[in-house]
Write a structure and sequence with these properties.
The chain has 138 residues and is of the alpha+beta class. Helices cover 20% and strands 22% of the residues. The chain has two helices and seven strands; from the N terminus they run H-E-H-E-E-E-E-E-E. The protein has a five-stranded antiparallel β-sheet, with helices on one face. A two-stranded parallel ribbon has the order 1-2. Strand 5 and strand 6 form a beta hairpin. Helix 1 crosses helix 2. The longest helix is centred in the middle third of the chain and has 14 residues.
C-alpha cells in the first residue's frame, strides 16, 4: 500500500473527501509529497493512483482540485503544475458515481476517461480516451 501522511487508510481518505464534497466545501488533494528538498518530481505511478482515488470520491468537480508535486517549492512544486500533461487531457463529465465492479475494484466512468482503483493496495489508474494511462492499473 502507498504511504499516507495522515495515517488514514485510502478508503478513509476517500470517505472523508466525499463527505467534504457533499458539504459543498472546496477541496484540495495533493499527492506525491516527499521531504522538502529531497526530490524535484513525484513518482508518476503514485500520482496516477492518487488521481484515480481523487476521481472516485469527487462529486463536485468545480470544488475539487488535485495536484501531484513533491513539495511546495516554487521551481518544482505548485508552479510547475500547468506543465503536467494530465491537465491537458479531457476528463469530461462523470457518467455516474464510483462503484465496485465484479472484479472487486472501484470503477468510475467519465466522458473522457475510466478510473480503476484497488482501494486495498492503493494501485489505481486513469485510462484516458486518447489511449494514455496515468498510474498502474490493478
Amino acid at each position: 500500500a502507498l504511504e499516507d501522511h495522515d495515517r488514514l487508510s485510502l478508503a478513509e481518505d476517500i470517505q472523508r473527501l466525499a463527505a467534504v464534497q457533499r458539504e459543498g466545501l472546496l477541496t484540495l488533494v495533493r499527492a506525491g509529497g516527499v521531504a522538502p528538498g529531497t526530490a524535484n518530481h513525484s513518482d508518476p505511478v503514485v500520482c496516477g493512483a492518487a488521481l484515480a482515488a481523487f476521481l472516485t470520491a469527487v462529486s463536485r468537480p468545480n470544488l475539487g482540485y488535485f495536484a501531484c508535486a513533491p513539495d511546495f517549492a516554487y521551481d518544482h512544486g505548485w508552479m510547475r503544475l500547468p506543465t503536467d500533461p494530465v491537465f491537458k487531457r479531457h476528463l469530461g463529465a462523470p457518467r455516474g458515481p464510483a462503484a465496485v465492479a465484479a472484479d472487486g475494484f472501484v470503477h468510475r466512468h467519465f466522458a473522457g476517461a475510466e478510473v480503476v482503483l484497488n482501494a486495498t493496495s492503493g494501485e489505481g489508474c486513469v485510462r484516458w480516451s486518447q489511449g494514455d494511462v496515468s498510474g498502474t492499473c490493478p
